[in-house]
């Protein structure tokens, strides 16, 4: 199979979420078809809604700051990705290694005690601020691994993880680095929970993406990290890469602060851009891992775009019924889930979907489905009208 040298290889992946600690555990959950949302919150709150929590023990990070949970989730996923890539010499590597990670929660000073002290005394302790500044995901990862290369933390709402992958791929494509750590991470947090609750888009039951009775999203946490590598660098170290980022597209429809354009104009443009970059026709796409938040507007807009662009029909699903909406981590995790579907030759049921509503132009799969093909697409939609599409290709 010919390799397009303008594309960017995927050397390894790592994932941690409520669906499992690692790719193997995640696939076990997908096989079971049984999501595992938590009925209680990990912090004090009057909000009554299920969330998807990581139960695995996370690494402790020694240093001069208190590592955020988002950073610890990142390191857990990165550890798996490094092992899968065979790039164990990455720590302290003198080569050009970029770090581009997306997040939302970790980009905010989410310290309720700090703000309470500020309001009541006007003189809050500064330790939380120091911890926050030192826990910038991309900078912290670069420091922990003593890497030499560009670093960027992408904060673009719920498309952050996907955008980070696209940016990191462009670094390699344009010769800025030979390797790049990319993806996203986010933790459950009281501030984010209260914000989504106030918007009225959270469900008090396990979410049901694309279903007739969908009532909103559930929040989750996790991290999805990919190690990207130029094909030239892989050949130099004798590695045979099995997957690559074939195309990436992003676009903003600038319709509404929190809702997508009703016709999905931004998503349409992002998907078209990703397929054009890869020179791929719609019929070559084996399946789509949709954003699928189970909110009324998002699911409706996505289904319209899929129906419009893939006129012969396309298999698609949402994995948020297994993970919840992991915000800045979603694009990273779901790109990995897309790769796993291509690798395994099957995709899980779009859990929670039972009945197609009249307002949806297309319906997701409702059972485990065998798939075949070289290409699959992962889509991400975000507040502010941001949209991203990552096209992944199986090489072997």
Helix segment tally: 12
Q: C-alpha Rg, in Å?
A: 20 Å
Write down the overall geometry. globular
Number of strands: 13
Structural write-up:
The structure is a single chain. This protein is of the alpha/beta class and 396 residues long. Helix content is 33%, strand content 20%. Strands 1, 2, 3, 4, 5, 6, 7, 8, 9, 12 and 13 form an 11-stranded mixed sheet that branches. The chain has a two-stranded antiparallel ribbon with strand order 10-11. It is globular. The termini are close together.
Question: Which terms summarize this structure?
Answer:
two-stranded antiparallel ribbon, globular, alpha/beta, 20% strand, 12 helices, 396 residues
In brief:
The chain is α/β, with parallel strands linked by helices and 396 residues long.
Fold topology:
Layout: E1 8-17, E2 20-21, H1 23-32, H2 69-85, E3 97-102, H3 112-121, H4 127-134, H5 137-144, E4 151-154, H6 160-173, E5 179-186, H7 190-199, E6 222-229, H8 231-236, E7 243-252, H9 265-278, E8 285-290, H10 296-309, E9 315-318, H11 320-323, H12 330-344, E10 346-347, E11 369-370, E12 375-382, E13 386-394
Parallel strand pairs: 3-4, 3-5, 8-9, 8-12
Antiparallel strand pairs: 1-2, 1-6, 1-7, 5-6, 7-13, 10-11, 12-13
Helix pairs in contact: 6-12, 9-10
């Amino acid at each position: 199979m010919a390799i397009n040298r303008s594309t960017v290889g995927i050397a390894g992946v790592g994932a941690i979420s409520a669906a499992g600690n690692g790719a193997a555990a995640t696939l076990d959950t997908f096989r079971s078809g049984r999501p595992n949302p938590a009925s209680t919150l990990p912090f004090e709150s009057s909000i009554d809604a299920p969330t998807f929590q990581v139960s695995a023990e996370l690494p402790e990070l020694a240093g001069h700051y208190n590592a955020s949970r988002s950073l610890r989730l990142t390191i857990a996923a990165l550890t798996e990705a490094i092992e899968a890539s065979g790039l164990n010499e990455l720590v302290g590597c003198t080569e050009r290694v970029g770090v581009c990670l997306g997040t939302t929660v970790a980009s905010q000073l989410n310290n309720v005690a700090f703000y309470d002290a500020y309001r009541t005394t006007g003189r809050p302790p500064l330790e939380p601020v120091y911890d926050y500044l030192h826990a910038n995901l991309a900078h912290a990862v670069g420091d922990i691994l003593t890497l030499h290369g560009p670093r960027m933390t992408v904060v673009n709402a719920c498309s952050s993880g996907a955008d980070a992958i696209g940016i990191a791929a462009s670094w390699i494509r344009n010769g800025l680095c030979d390797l790049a750590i990319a993806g996203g991470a986010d933790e459950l947090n009281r501030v984010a929970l209260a914000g989504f609750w106030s918007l009225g888009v959270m469900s008090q039951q396990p979410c049901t993406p694309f279903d007739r009775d969908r009532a909103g999203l559930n929040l989750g946490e996790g991290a999805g990290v990919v190690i990207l590598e130029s094909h030239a660098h892989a050949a130099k170290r004798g590695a045979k890469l099995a997957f690559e980022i074939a195309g990436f597209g992003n676009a903003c429809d600038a319709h509404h602060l929190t809702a997508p354009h009703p016709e999905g104009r931004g998503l349409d443009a992002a998907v078209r851009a990703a397929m054009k970059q890869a020179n791929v026709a719609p019929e070559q796409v084996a399946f789509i891992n949709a954003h699928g938040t189970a909110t009324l507007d998002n699911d409706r807009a996505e289904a319209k775009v899929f129906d419009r662009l893939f006129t012969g029909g396309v298999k698609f699903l949402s994995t948020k019924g297994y993970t919840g909406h992991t915000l800045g981590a979603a694009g990273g995790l779901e790109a990995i889930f897309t790769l796993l579907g291509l690798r395994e030759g099957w995709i899980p049921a779009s859990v929670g979907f039972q009945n197609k509503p009249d307002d949806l132009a297309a319906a997701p799969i409702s059972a485990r489905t065998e798939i075949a093909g070289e290409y699959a697409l992962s889509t991400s939609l975000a507040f502010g009208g941001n949209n991203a599409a990552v096209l992944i290709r199986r090489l072997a």
